[in-house]
């Protein structure tokens, strides 16, 4: 994958220096984007201009949800990484702020996390003004080009003004590389170990997760590795996240998210998860089969908002809505990529088999502009931004969004599989892997209800309040004007949604 990224970056440099510049590839940030460009998401966050990938450093502080993200402010393809920054007070409306972290002599700023160091354990703030601390990966492009193995290290930066300005820690890096090429994406949280608070870091190390611990965020000690034989290994492991959730019968369980690229169930990038126990040093599990967070092709590198502080105890997640198979070439100008909808994570199932559900956060109901009861087989869509709530009544059901230009996207249950077919959804030939039929195994799951969000360039399908999820990008050239329904109850709900921009 990094080869693909480097080729994309080299191509940008080539186009800039050879004066064959395609203007849209090199625009710098317009002071105001009207967010009306073709395919521009209307209720998902996307930067005003240029490239984004993974969400980073999500932390809730003083009434604001912070969202940082992998950002390249000089181009619409991947390149030297910065941390872009946006904030929201409701997880629905986003305000883009200036870039938070820029590359320095130690390297580009890859993915990572952020916490409030409330007790000032790091000494980077004061007890009265505790620091927000960002922990990220330095990627040294010179070391990488020279063929070294130790070009990824972990660094930290801190802010004493609600994330508005950041200072890099003078003693960086705080975690040196032991000679392993892929050594990145630190996710830090706080937990009690033997009655004492500890900082725990989960780190993606090639194809395992390593755990480190610290008292002060500055000195880190290696604890253990996790890489069970049955997990998905077709690609490099990235962007881990470790957090506790309570089961429906009241037990505390630990969830470990591990993104992998390539090797996803429908090709390219995807996120697997493991449910088990963490004792402060070691993660253990009885799980012995892969579980996937999302069976669509376009939810990658997602992680949760920090547990310190947390707004109201909910575990909130957001992903990058793309896939490294084609992320650099999706047909958008001005900007490239967006986040998924924010989702609340919870556990479902029966002991000892637990699964992760991700449902759209309740705040998204604010988007509803008008709501309609719908029945019949053919529903006209008067508007482009749609949320549908449907209850299937037949064993196999089918739903098709389409328009008179012949563009369509199909969602169908066929036997024990949920199928999302975007082969004729609009612009599809920018990459041979894009026009595809994505499948999710339903196993024992009985589909009771579906919630579907359609934005200008995406569809997100939530079965049974998020027990199974599919997220796919779509690039229709014309909006879908009708939806055909087969196998659903007579009463369903349609909501037209408003733009957040
Ligand atoms: C995941 C990823 C991370 C890395 C970042 C670089 O998409 O490859 O592992 O930190 O993107 O932009």
TrEMBL record:
Ranges where the Glycosyl hydrolase family 32 C-terminal domain occurs: 374-492
Residue span(s) of domain Glycosyl hydrolase family 32 N-terminal: 44-350
Claim: Hydrolase is one of the keywords in the record: yes
Molecular function (Gene Ontology), one example: hydrolase activity
Database matches in SMART domains: Glyco_32
Organism domain of life: Bacteria
InterPro entries hit by this protein: ConA-like_dom_sf, Glyco_hydro_32, Glyco_hydro_32_AS, Glyco_hydro_32_C, Glyco_hydro_32_N, Glyco_hydro_beta-prop_sf
Family the entry assigns: Belongs to the glycosyl hydrolase 32 family.
Protein name as it appears in the record: Glycoside hydrolase family 32 protein
Organism from which the protein derives: Cyclobacterium jeungdonense
């Amino acid at each position: 994958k990094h080869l693909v990224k480097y080729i994309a970056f080299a191509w940008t440099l080539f186009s800039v220096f050879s004066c064959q510049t395609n203007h849209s590839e090199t625009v710098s940030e317009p002071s105001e984007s009207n967010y009306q460009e073709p395919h521009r998401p209307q209720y998902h966050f996307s930067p005003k201009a240029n490239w984004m990938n993974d969400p980073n450093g999500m932390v809730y502080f003083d009434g604001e949800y912070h969202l940082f993200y992998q950002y390249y402010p000089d181009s619409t393809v991947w390149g030297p990484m910065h941390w872009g920054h946006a904030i929201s007070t409701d997880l629905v409306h986003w305000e883009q702020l200036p870039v938070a972290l820029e590359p320095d002599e130690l390297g580009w700023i890859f993915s990572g996390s952020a916490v409030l160091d409330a007790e000032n354990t790091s000494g980077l703030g004061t007890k009265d003004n505790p620091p927000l601390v960002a922990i990220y990966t330095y990627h040294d492009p010179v070391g990488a080009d020279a063929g070294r193995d130790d070009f990824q290290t972990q660094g930290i930066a801190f802010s004493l003004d609600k994330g508005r300005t950041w200072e890099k820690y003078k003693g960086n890096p705080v975690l040196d590389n032991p000679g392993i090429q892929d050594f990145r994406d630190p996710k830090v949280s706080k937990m009690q170990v033997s009655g004492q608070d500890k900082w725990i870091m989960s780190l993606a190390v090639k194809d395992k997760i390593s755990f480190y611990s610290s008292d002060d965020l500055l000195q880190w000690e290696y604890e253990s590795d996790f890489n069970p034989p049955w997990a998905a290994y077709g690609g490099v492991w990235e962007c881990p996240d470790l957090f506790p959730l309570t089961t429906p019968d009241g037990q505390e369980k630990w969830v470990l998210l591990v993104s992998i690229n390539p090797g996803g169930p429908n090709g390219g990038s995807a996120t697997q998860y493991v449910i088990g126990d963490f004792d402060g040093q070691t993660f253990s599990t009885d799980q012995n089969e892969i579980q996937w967070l999302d069976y669509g092709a376009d939810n990658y590198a997602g992680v949760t908002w920090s547990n310190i502080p947390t707004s109201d105890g909910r575990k909130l997640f957001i992903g990058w809505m793309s896939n490294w198979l084609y992320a650099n070439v999706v047909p958008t100008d001005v900007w490239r990529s967006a986040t998924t909808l924010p989702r609340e994570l919870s556990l479902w199932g029966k002991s000892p088999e637990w699964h992760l559900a991700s449902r759209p956060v309740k705040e998204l109901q604010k988007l509803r502009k008008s709501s309609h009861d719908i029945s019949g087989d053919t529903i006209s869509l008067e508007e482009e931004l749609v949320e549908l709530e449907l209850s299937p009544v037949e064993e196999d059901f089918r739903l098709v969004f389409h328009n008179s230009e012949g563009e369509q996207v199909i969602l169908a249950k066929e036997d024990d599989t949920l199928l999302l077919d975007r082969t004729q959804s609009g612009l599809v030939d920018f990459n041979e892997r894009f026009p595809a039929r994505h499948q999710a195994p339903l196993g024992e799951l009985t589909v009771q209800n579906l919630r579907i969000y359609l934005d200008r360039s995406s569809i997100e399908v939530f079965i049974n309040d998020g027990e199974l999820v599919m997220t796919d990008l779509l690039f229709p050239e014309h909006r879908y004007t009708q939806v055909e329904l087969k196998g659903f109850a007579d009463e369903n709900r349609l909501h037209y949604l408003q733009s957040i921009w």
